């Protein structure tokens, strides 16, 4: 499923054309080209990088319509215990500010189906909105379960009310934990399940969907899986990386990332999250076996061994040849 090589991504300077409070601690930003021109094309599930400072880059799902080429919208939840990205957005990005934006990139692609079950927790609602628009336009049968701490913390509830009974709003403080068994029911081969939200919700849905067809479940994470960075038993402490296009070979030592090792040798690479969740640093693998430690690729994609995230993943073979 390897994406387009990351070095082809564009960075554009956009202006914050609108800013609004969408819910408790959730702000919505509408971004436009300063000249009013078209923005790059995208599909439901895509996210963009907001380059907040030289050292602060954060990913946010696009929640506007892909049909609107003039505006991108993101919703940002303030995380008081985070590493500073959401605080910067909430406190520094006002209407009229200019911001560098990279992407869009899509590791949560929306696939066509007759039926969908969307499950969103909190700010995980954002990538669902363009997916719902596409499902509705296709005349698909769909349902959304949208959970949140409390009603006032849930963005886009009014906007979703137009869909009537297709949408179930589930404030946890009023209704407790949702019953996934009644939402998902028995495994179906005509249904795709799309889920985005906090780890507890994702793990529960993953667990529940184990009996579903492998292709059914699609998940997007905000943070690395709890066990994602655990090395496999065969992982090597020392290995070599051949950067095929650059003509450089790099030794990677214990505790060092491939990304850091090749950057130290002057190979230029884009990267954002450094946690294996955004997909920015994805590269094609031409030879060798990666030790995948990211939370972007699913098990089948990891088994294909044709791409890897070099901010966290390492190697099972003494040599990796990468398309860099
Ligand atoms: S920089 Fe985000 S996956 Fe590597």
TrEMBL record:
<dbReference type="Pfam" id="PF00111">
    <property type="entry name" value="Fer2"/>
</dbReference>
<dbReference type="InterPro" id="IPR036010">
    <property type="entry name" value="2Fe-2S_ferredoxin-like_sf"/>
</dbReference>
<dbReference type="InterPro" id="IPR006058">
    <property type="entry name" value="2Fe2S_fd_BS"/>
</dbReference>
<protein>
    <submittedName>
        <fullName>Phenoxybenzoate dioxygenase subunit beta</fullName>
        <ecNumber>1.-.-.-</ecNumber>
    </submittedName>
</protein>
<dbReference type="InterPro" id="IPR001433">
    <property type="entry name" value="OxRdtase_FAD/NAD-bd"/>
</dbReference>
<keyword id="KW-0411">Iron-sulfur</keyword>
<keyword id="KW-0408">Iron</keyword>
<dbReference type="InterPro" id="IPR039261">
    <property type="entry name" value="FNR_nucleotide-bd"/>
</dbReference>
<feature type="domain" description="FAD-binding FR-type">
    <location>
        <begin position="9"/>
        <end position="111"/>
    </location>
</feature>
<dbReference type="InterPro" id="IPR001041">
    <property type="entry name" value="2Fe-2S_ferredoxin-type"/>
</dbReference>
<dbReference type="GO" id="GO:0051537">
    <property type="term" value="F:2 iron, 2 sulfur cluster binding"/>
</dbReference>
<dbReference type="InterPro" id="IPR017938">
    <property type="entry name" value="Riboflavin_synthase-like_b-brl"/>
</dbReference>
<dbReference type="InterPro" id="IPR050415">
    <property type="entry name" value="MRET"/>
</dbReference>
<keyword id="KW-0001">2Fe-2S</keyword>
<keyword id="KW-0223">Dioxygenase</keyword>
<dbReference type="InterPro" id="IPR017927">
    <property type="entry name" value="FAD-bd_FR_type"/>
</dbReference>
<feature type="domain" description="2Fe-2S ferredoxin-type">
    <location>
        <begin position="237"/>
        <end position="324"/>
    </location>
</feature>
<dbReference type="GO" id="GO:0046872">
    <property type="term" value="F:metal ion binding"/>
</dbReference>
<dbReference type="GO" id="GO:0051213">
    <property type="term" value="F:dioxygenase activity"/>
</dbReference>
<dbReference type="InterPro" id="IPR012675">
    <property type="entry name" value="Beta-grasp_dom_sf"/>
</dbReference>
<dbReference type="Pfam" id="PF00175">
    <property type="entry name" value="NAD_binding_1"/>
</dbReference>
<keyword id="KW-0285">Flavoprotein</keyword>
<keyword id="KW-0479">Metal-binding</keyword>
<keyword id="KW-0560">Oxidoreductase</keyword>
